[in-house]
Amino acid sequence: MERTFNDTEVKKLIAEAIAPLVARIAKLETENTALKAEVARLKKNSSNSSKPPSSDIVKPPRRRQPGAMPNARSAASRDTSNTNARPSLRPD
Q: From CA 79, how far away is CA 72, in angstroms rounded?
């Protein structure tokens, strides 16, 4: 036998199901607002605000040109076909 619900029971069940979700949404919106404010604060540095350069914690990394080697020394250190290498010793 199936149970039928009247309008007030349906509205009550829906309200009970939605209440925790509404509370969770409110909490997440508050957290989201706080995080957006923190991100905005952290993105500011001396190049995009009135802060003095000494207040910058870390300078942003310099961007390399696409396809450029980091530097010649590191490229040479990776080269395994060095012709000036010392010959290996023969076992006695």
A: 11
Q: Which residues of the chain have pLDDT under 70?
A: 56-60, 67-85
R_g (Cα) of the chain, nearest Å: 33
Task: Annotate 22-44 with b (16+ C-beta within 10 A) or e (fewer).
Answer: eeeeeeeeeeeeeeeeeeeeeee
Instruction: Give the pLDDT confidence of 49-73 residue by residue, as tens digits.
Output: 777 777 766 666 777 777 666 665 5
Closest CA to 60 of 70, 47, 69, 71: 47
Single-letter residue type at 7: D
- pLDDT of the residue at 82: 57
Q: Which token pair is 65?
A: 């040109």
Q: Tokens representing 68?
A: 């450029």
